[in-house]
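Two quick folds needed for the group meeting slides. Do the first one here.
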Amino acid sequence: MSDEIDKLRQRITELEVIARDYTRVQQLVDYAAQGGDLTRSMSLSVLYVDPFTQQVIDANDAALELLGYPRSRLIGMTVDQLAISPSTPPVHSPEADYARLYTLTYQRPDGHDFLLTVDHWPIEREDRRVVYYRLTESSLHRRLWHELQRRETEGFHFQQKLTALNEVTVQLSRIEPLDPLCHQIVALGVSLLGFDRLGLWLNDPDHAVMRGTYGTDEQGSIRAEHDQVWHYTGSQIESYIAGTTTTPLVFTESPLYNHKCEIVRYGWNVIVPLLYGSRCLGVLSADNFTHGHPLQDYEPELLRLYGITAAHLIELARTREQAVTLRVAQGRTGMLREFITNVGHDFRTPLSVINTKAYLLQRVIDPGDRAALVNSINQQVKQLGDIVDRMLELVTLQSNPTLHRERLPVTALVNLVLSAQRNVIAAKGLHVDLHINPTLSVCADHDHAVRALHEILENAVQYTPHEGTIRIEGVAYPQEIGIRVRDSGTGMDAATLKRVFEPLYRGDQARTERNIGFGLAIAKAIAEAHGGRILAESTLGQGSTFEIVLPEDRTCPLP
């Protein structure tokens, strides 16, 4: 009879514990529903115990609150007095040697009891060997609190990641070219969104493959993966391509590969589609290769949102590049059409003359007349050769010119070019005014600088009428020197001025003047090859001003 009474009392005690636990659970639910701070009292409860006396020598605040003792009373008590010794044989824990793990019913001084899990092992603390006790309340209330706190923490982290995603989107939207955009999608996903490893793959629907762009290597650095390709036929990726699903693919025990496609370890892997409307532009993958952190509940959703953001920016970059490519193609077609038209005209006239003279040469007997015809043919051949030479020269200047830079006084350059034009200048009665500070010097290739200045001066001489004026000035800019040539010639309208530096372009489209049409284009190419520029101003009927700007002599390398 007494045994039955004892069992009944024990059962009543258990029910009282359950009732108190339920009351605390209800209080916790209400507290959480009202937005209470779930992080309070959630720190780890720790005791430090002397291994010989079994007395408590230190405890943290969380342990004091959990056990229900003030520090002054708890320090010096033994684990037996605290009633936290195992009531059942201890179980070895895999965490560390000599560790003990057990669960018991603990009763606080206020009479409240609950399940307590005790985990302890020896450690070195302040050059002293002690036993480290880790205490965890195992009640339903405590487990619920831990779960609510975990979810609240993950929710907080997810909010932080969404804020970071907004910042990443802003940064990526400033990048226009597709390839740098793909690089930064991976780089910012790792650095700002906190993903371990990322890989960005673009869909090639014609071959049913994913083509690599950039990814993360084993050391966490961003690497180019443009040479990597994998077929998705028969895989779950086909559901993205078909548009039957958009949910992330999550693999918890997935093989993780190194750069040699060797399985190094196993971990989680998440794959999401790059969705633009109903189209799948590719996939974005993430894993925990580098740090091995467990998968957070919010990470697949965060990666999915990032994939949508990346897809829209990738499609925008592709559209821009296609538009640029189309404009370039159209521009090249127009330039080629005009080039063929201009070159055809410039070649057709000499060839026609050559053809006529060659025909007459077969029928003329007089040696003097034959010599005149041969001389005329040679002149036309020379003109064709000049056109070809200038075309090749312009191509060389625009691609990879060889420059031998040296200090060149501006006055000496101008005088050298003027001396080559003196006969034409004298024949037209032109007045040349020089306004150049003798201290001005440029850093340039001598022959190229002379050539560019010659083209500018020759243009001024050609279009300035008899008794006109040409003014040559030196202009000092910060780290640059300008050589300005102003004429009182015919000038140009706005349309002609806009195109005056184009190869083969001439304002005189009727070809009434003998001018191959490469001179100013060559002068511009020479200036830009030096890191300089060429400027032009003109008013129809009032003259033109051309100015070549070159680096000053202080920028020259030491001899």
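Then this one, please, same format:
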Amino acid sequence: MSNFIVSARKYRPVRFEEVVGQRHVTDTLKRAIISDKIAHAFLFCGPRGVGKTSCARILAKALNCKNPSEDKEPCNACDSCEAFNDNASFNIIELDAASHNSVEHMRKLVEQVNIQPTAGAYKVFIIDEVHMLSTSAFNAFLKTLEEPPPYAVFILATTEKHKILPTILSRCQIYDFKRIDVNDVVKHLRHICQQEGVRAEDEALYVIGQKADGALRDALSLFDRLSNQSDGTMTYQQVIDSLGMVDYETYFGLFDNVLSEDPASLLMTLNSLVGRGFEAEQVIKGLASHMRDLLFFKFEKLSPLITLPDQLLIRYREQAKLASEALLVNSLDTITDALYRAQLSPDKKVLFEITLTKIAYYNRLVSGQTADIIAKEVPDKKKANTIAEPFSSQVEKLPESLPTVQKAPDISIPVDEHTTDKPSTEKIEEPVSVEVVQQDGEKESKPVKKRQTSIMSSLQDIAKEIDKEKKNKKKARELNAQELAEVWELFIVQTDSSYMRQLLANTKVVLEKERIDIVVDHKRVQEAITKEFNCIIYLREAFGQPELDVHVHVEESNESKTVEKRLITNKEKFEYLVEKNPNILEMTRRFNLKFDN
């Protein structure tokens, strides 16, 4: 039985050139070696499976390589490189901080630092998962990391940079590794397919790259698993079936149903996928990703962000032409909100069904309603005396053969005498001016505002108009004692705090000519009703007098009662007791008692 080596180990990079997707790190490291400016401590941080430990090993080999190339790549043929590849190097020491995280382990490491290298110029210590070290171990390592011997180099690797002490971070050169792009992952998988003799469709490799989420090691693990299921051939259908993913065709069909305003088909497709074992949340996330790609196709500058096989690019472009940016943005916003609410929803499936139903009608809200719907909503011409707001973004011009304008149609635009009978396809971008012929024959021009595409903004505008009307209808009260009593009683009732309502009930409100005096029994109440409850503003708005003089003050009798508190000395206490009982003085003299001053 042969010893199988997984692709993540078999195709592990041994040179800086072979590292995938981290060119910004490898180029910097090579330039540092060429210029002989090697730091004593490096920190490689980033997500899992992006090449942190691989770069640390390559750097360690390059520092001690006897026959490096011109760009300081390790030769992998000298004694130092071969010893490291065989795990027999005494100059390159690897430590797993996840299992060696105590102070004792760190002390042993410090002892090894004091031993000079037997061969080569550097003694390199690679500490993986360094964030797992305890605080005591970090502190024990701190002094050595700050002032190591000239031959010692530390390379720390971690996936959780925020867990490392700031004192450690300040002593290291930090290199941030990024997630590997899908195109780079697919390119590397193609290379492995050529080496292994596996024929794979591009769509299948792109699915593996997207599923890996930027981790090349995860992509290689998926590749090994999926390649074992096929006889030298890896198809797109096999990959999505094995990974439990929804195919592209399903999402194309779902969005076609959105464009055709067919919520029934959307719900049927969702229930069919749920019946096949897919989670409703997974389907909705996939549809959001599909719409995101369609939105990016609407802007040429975003084309580099689209990671799709060449065979699908044409289909995406064709479907993107049928949708507007407003439809895609509103749909994505609704889906994002539904995914957030799904965390607390008792029935996620029903929530996502409602979401799909909403999306199905967004196209109508954005591009305008159909002619049949407009005809139903337009009232009878005989009863119409007002002009309805247009729902469609495209309005046909009225033919000249129609009767006179005196019948006041609900939707009309001015007709030029030189226009033909052909319908106009020009879009109305600005508010339209509509002519209405009154009974006396005079024409009156009224602007018709363009309908807003956002439902929420329309509702907010309606609410603002209602509030405005209420304010206009609200009449100012007449300033007299009776009205003042009613307004003050209403103010007490509207106060949220029951405690404050009890205090306000004891206040005196007096009308002195054109001034209102509010007398309270405590300074705390005065501060509360003036700052927290804004009674002055309330009274001014209630009587419609912005400059109404309102004075809030504490009752004088209560102010005089307040006595300044201070500490009482022992002597004052003794004098008070003697005043109450003179025998205490005789007792202190007889027993020679004293008190502390």
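Slide caption for protein two: Residues 182-243 form a domain with the Helicase, Ruva Protein; domain 3 fold (CATH 1.10.8.60).
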